[in-house]
């Protein structure tokens, strides 16, 4: 093998390692390392010092790449583990606030809507009775608190500016999410009541 041939082959092998992973000609470092080792063997058999030197140099570069990739992967796993641990810590803290302490359990967050529906219950007759059943379920405090738990948990999980240990922040986020639910309920219940002939101003119902 000539000096030119060995140089071209080594450079081609390097290029194949540097290709994108989805390229059909891509070589993983460990694959290219085996080729480099074989080229070193050929260099020894053919007494080609240039091929031996270049193959050994490429083999070392590929070993370094493998070691760096392994270090990067270990770091990634450690980061993922830390992130998972933090998410679990937040989850347990929010569970404690919502369900063990029952901090928001006595708020009757949907009471104003249930009162409004009860006031016009007689309008839900015939085929509209199923709508009444759905509205009663829709305004169930426990179901809504479960939704609020998920919303608050997710906010503290994915917003690094929030601190789950700050109960005032938890209360503030809870109020924000509750306002979103109330805003949706305003529209939904107004529409459902209109279907049974009830025109209502939910702003008055909020008082």
What do you see in this structure?
- This protein is mainly alpha-helical.
- The chain contains eight helices and no strands.
- α1 packs antiparallel against α2 and α6 (141-158) crosses α7.
Summarize the structure.
By secondary structure, the chain is mostly helical. Helices cover 75% and strands 0% of the residues.
User: What is the count of DSSP helices, taking H or I runs of 4+ residues?
Assistant: 8
**General form:** elongated
| Number of E-state strands | 0
**From the alpha-carbon coordinates, what is the Rg to the nearest angstrom?**
33 Å
Largest sheet: none
Q: Please trace the helix and strand order, writing H or E for each element.
A: HHHHHHHH
Distance between the termini: 91 Å
Low-confidence stretches: none
Question: Which bin fits the share of residues in helices?
Answer: over 70%
Fraction of residues in β-strands: under 5%
Overall mean confidence score, pLDDT: 83
Q: Which helices and strands occur, and which strands form pairs?
A:
Elements: H1 3-18, H2 29-46, H3 49-100, H4 111-119, H5 129-138, H6 141-158, H7 167-195, H8 202-205
Helix pairs in contact: 1-2, 1-3, 2-3, 3-6, 6-7
Q: Key terms for this structure?
A:
8 helices; mainly alpha; 207 residues; 0% strand
